[in-house]
Specification:
single chain; Immunoglobulin-like; seven-stranded antiparallel sheet; 5 helices; 39 strands; elongated
Length: 681
C-alpha cells in the first residue's frame, strides 16, 4: 500500500510514557471514551470514534492542564475529511446528469454524457452543532446483525494504550506478559475479517506476535474507526440523535489515530496525534482531498460546570513564521485559568490552509450532499466549502486567519467559541491536476501529524511549536531528553496480600536525584502526606503501615536539583488482606511528630508535634547527606502541642537550596520520629 506522508500539528505543551495495555469498557457500547492520557502534564481523553475530549456520557477531564489542576481547555475536537467523489449506482456504474443545468436531484442517467456527477462529501468525527458521528468503530450497534461475532468482539473494540515503551509489561496483572498485544496495527484491511485489533495476530507470519509494535510516545494510544462498514453491512454508518435527518454518503475511508505524549520537561505540555487516512476504495480516487481538525474549546475550572465555562472564551490566530490557531479564557476566571490552547496544521508548501470560527447558533450543513444547488452563493455541502477555504455563509463563518482580532474586538466578554483549522490543495485535482493538487488514489493512505500544545502565552505556544517540530523532524529522537527532568508515571497500586498493605508500581524515563513514594489517607489534609525515599530503579515498593478498610491516596515524585515533579494521584481502598502473615503491633505513647505543611513549600513551612513527657525537646533540620542545617528547637518544654516555623534558612540565616530535607524530634536525647520535606524555589 503506497503511503503519502505529510505533517499536521495541534499544539499544547507537556507529554509522557509507554507499556502495552488493552483498555476496555465493561459493557456493550458503540464508543469507548474511557481512556485518559495522563502520563505527562496533560490529562487528555481519547475515544475510538474519531472524537477527542468529552462526550455526552463522559466529561472531565477532557483536556486538563496542568494535570491535577482541575482546569479544562476542551469540550470536543474531531477530524473532518472531505473530497470530491464520482457518484455510482448499486452496480458500480458511473452516473451522469441528463441535462445541464440539472432539472433536480434525480435528473441523472447511467448513459454517458459530458456531465459526470461528482459529489462533494465530508465525513466528520463529530458535527459540532448537530448530534452526528460518522467515524465509528468496526463493532457498533449498526453491526449487531453479525450475531456471535458482534457479541464476541464488541467488548474488545476499544482504544489501545501503551505506556513506558516496555514490551515486557504485564498490563492486567494476571502473571502473563502481553498476551493481548495490538494485533495487526499497520494494515486497516484486516485479512482475517475480524477487524478487532486487540486480538493477537502474527502479521508477517514469522511465528511472533507484534514484535515490531514500536510507537514513539512514552504514552501512546491507538484507535481505529471507519465511515463505512468493513463487514459490508448495508445501511448508513452514522450515529447520534440527529442521524435520522442526516444522509451520510461514505467517502469509504478508514482512520487510525495514534496519540503520543512524553513526561519530560518542556515536552510534557504537548500531545502529538498521528492520523492515517486510508482510501478503502479499489476504484475511486478521492479528488481535491482536504482535512481539518474541529475544536470546541470550553475553558475553565471543571468545578464551575460546562455551561459556566463555555460562554467566555476567545479564538484567535497567530500570524508569522509559525501560524497556528489558539484559544483562551477571556477574563482568566479571576486568575484561575491562565493557559492557552494551541493548534497548528503543518503541511507542505504546495498546500493551502484556512481557519474559521463561527458562533454557537450556527453550524455548517451537509445533511443532503446529493442535493443540487444551482447558485454560487448557496450549497448543500457547507462543510466541504469550509474545508477547502470558501465561506458558505458570510453572516456566520469568519476567517480568523485573515482577521485574527475578530473575536477579540467583537466579543469583549468572550463567546462560546469553536474553530476549524483546515488544509487543502489547489482544487484542480479533478479537472486539471497539478503538483499542487491533493488527490488520494484507490487503496492509498495519507499520513499527517496533529500537535496539541499548552502554554501561558502566545509566545510560549510558539516556542513549544518550534520545539515539537524539531522533535518530529529528528524522528522522535529520545536523546533530546538527555539531562531533562522527567515526570514519574504511577502505573497502579495493588493489594500486597498483607495486612493493610499496598504495592506501588511506577515507571520513570530519566534517573532523578531523589525518588519518593508518597501516600496519605484520602480524607486527611495535605500536610499529612508521607514521603518514602526509594531507589527509582526498583519500579515498585510495598507500604505496610496502612489502616485497613481505609481509602488512601498514592503518588510518586522525583527531585532533580531545583525541580520537583510528581505523578498523577490514585485513590485506593486498602483492605485487611491476609492477616496470618504479619502480627498487629500496638503502638503505645502520644509523643508525635506531624508532617510539615505545606509540603513541598516555599518560602516557609510549619511543623507541629505533641509531647507526652516534660523534658528537653530538640527539633533539628538535616540535608540528604545527614548534615545538620538548623536547630529549630532546643529547650525544656511541658506536655502539650507545639508548632514552629522553618523559613528555609540554615544556621547562618542563609536560604538553603531546593531539595529534600529531614527533620527529627528528640525528647531527652531519645529519637521520637523523623520525617521528610521538600524545599522548592
Amino acid at each position: 500500500m503506497k503511503k503519502i506522508t505529510y505533517l499536521v500539528i495541534i499544539l499544547i505543551s507537556f507529554t509522557f510514557l509507554f507499556a502495552l495495555s488493552n483498555e476496555v469498557s465493561l459493557s456493550s457500547r458503540m464508543i469507548d471514551n474511557s481512556l485518559i492520557h495522563d502520563a505527562s502534564n496533560i490529562s487528555f481523553r481519547v475515544s475510538n470514534y474519531g472524537i477527542l475530549g468529552s462526550s455526552d456520557d463522559a466529561s472531565w477531564p477532557s483536556l486538563e492542564w496542568p494535570i491535577n489542576s482541575g482546569i479544562d481547555y476542551l469540550y470536543q475536537s474531531s477530524l473532518w475529511v472531505g473530497a470530491k467523489k464520482v457518484r455510482r449506482n448499486e452496480d458500480g456504474d458511473q452516473i451522469y446528469w441528463q441535462n445541464w443545468p440539472p432539472g433536480d436531484d434525480n435528473d441523472t442517467t447511467t448513459d454517458v454524457t459530458p456531465w459526470r456527477v461528482v459529489d462533494t462529501l465530508t465525513t466528520v468525527g463529530c458535527d459540532g452543532w448537530y448530534s452526528i458521528n460518522e467515524l465509528l468503530p468496526a463493532y457498533n450497534p449498526h453491526e449487531t446483525s453479525l450475531g456471535y461475532q458482534y457479541s464476541q468482539y464488541n467488548f474488545f473494540d476499544s482504544v489501545l494504550k501503551n505506556v513506558g515503551n516496555r514490551l515486557d509489561f504485564d498490563d492486567d496483572d494476571d502473571g502473563y506478559i502481553d498476551e493481548d498485544p495490538l494485533g495487526n496495527p499497520f494494515d486497516i484491511d484486516d485479512p482475517s475479517g475480524i477487524y478487532c485489533f486487540t486480538v493477537p495476530f502474527d502479521e508477517d507470519g514469522d511465528g511472533l506476535i507484534d514484535e515490531d509494535c514500536n510507537y514513539p510516545g512514552f504514552e501512546s494510544s491507538i484507535a481505529y474507526s471507519y465511515d463505512y462498514s468493513p463487514f459490508g453491512t448495508e445501511g448508513q454508518r452514522d450515529y447520534g440523535s440527529s442521524s435520522g435527518s442526516n444522509n451520510h454518503v461514505e467517502l469509504d475511508i478508514a482512520l487510525v489515530q495514534e496519540i503520543y505524549s512524553w513526561p519530560v520537561q518542556y515536552f510534557a505540555n504537548m500531545i502529538v496525534i498521528k492520523n492515517i487516512i486510508y482510501n478503502h476504495s479499489t476504484i475511486d480516487t478521492l479528488f481535491d482531498f482536504s482535512y481539518a481538525y474541529y475544536v470546541d474549546a470550553d475553558i475553565g475550572p471543571q468545578a464551575f460546570g460546562g455551561s459556566a465555562i463555555a460562554p467566555d472564551d476567545i479564538s484567535s490566530y497567530n500570524i508569522g513564521e509559525n501560524n497556528f490557531a489558539y484559544a483562551y479564557d477571556r477574563d482568566g476566571d479571576g486568575g484561575l485559568t491562565q493557559g492557552y490552547f494551541g493548534l497548528k496544521n503543518l503541511h507542505p508548501d504546495n498546500l493551502d490552509e484556512q481557519c474559521w470560527t463561527w458562533e454557537v447558533s450556527w453550524g455548517p450543513d451537509d445533511w443532503q450532499p446529493f442535493h443540487y444547488v444551482s447558485t454560487p452563493n448557496a450549497t448543500a455541502n457547507e462543510k466541504y466549502w469550509l474545508l477547502t477555504g470558501r465561506n458558505p455563509d458570510v453572516n456566520y463563518a469568519v476567517s480568523i486567519r485573515d482577521y485574527p482580532e475578530y473575536q477579540i474586538n467583537n466579543y469583549p466578554n468572550g463567546i462560546d467559541t469553536r474553530f476549524l483549522s483546515t488544509v487543502y490543495g489547489d482544487m484542480q485535482g479533478y479537472s486539471n491536476p497539478t503538483p499542487n493538487s491533493l488527490n488520494l488514489a484507490p487503496e492509498e493512505s495519507y499520513e499527517f501529524y496533529t500537535l496539541i500544545f499548552m502554554g501561558y502565552s502566545v509566545q510560549e505556544l510558539e516556542n513549544n511549536l518550534n520545539l515539537m517540530e524539531n522533535f518530529i523532524d529528528s524522528g522522535f529522537d529520545y536523546s533530546l531528553f538527555d539531562g531533562l527532568p522527567s515526570i514519574p508515571y504511577l502505573i497502579n497500586v495493588l493489594d500486597a496480600n498483607l495486612i493493610a498493605a499496598a504495592t506501588v508500581r511506577w515507571n520513570v524515563l530519566s534517573a532523578p536525584d531523589e525518588f519518593m513514594v508518597c501516600y496519605k489517607e484520602a480524607e486527611a489534609p495535605a500536610y499529612t502526606w508521607e514521603y518514602i525515599v526509594v531507589d527509582h530503579a526498583l519500579s515498585e515498593y510495598t507500604i505496610t503501615d496502612l489502616q485497613p478498610d481505609t481509602e488512601y491516596k498514592f503518588k510518586v515524585a522525583c527531585l532533580y536539583d531545583e525541580v520537583y515533579l510528581e505523578s498523577r494521584t490514585l485513590t485506593v481502598l486498602i483492605t485487611e488482606g491476609n492477616q496470618s502473615i504479619l502480627p498487629i503491633i500496638e503502638i503505645i505513647g502520644s509523643n508525635k511528630l506531624a508532617q510539615n505543611y505545606p509540603n513541598p513549600f516555599n518560602p516557609e513551612t510549619s511543623i507541629s508535634y505533641d509531647i507526652n513527657d516534660n523534658g528537653i525537646v530538640e527539633l533539628n533540620i538535616y540535608n540528604i547527606k545527614g548534615q545538620l542545617k538548623k536547630q529549630l528547637v532546643n529547650e525544656h518544654q511541658q506536655v502539650g502541642t507545639y508548632t514552629t516555623i522553618w523559613d528555609g534558612s540554615n544556621s547562618n540565616n542563609k536560604k538553603v537550596s531546593s531539595g529534600l530535607y529531614f527533620y527529627k524530634l528528640l525528647i531527652n536525647n531519645k529519637l521520637i520520629d523523623t520525617k521528610k520535606m521538600i524545599m522548592l524555589k
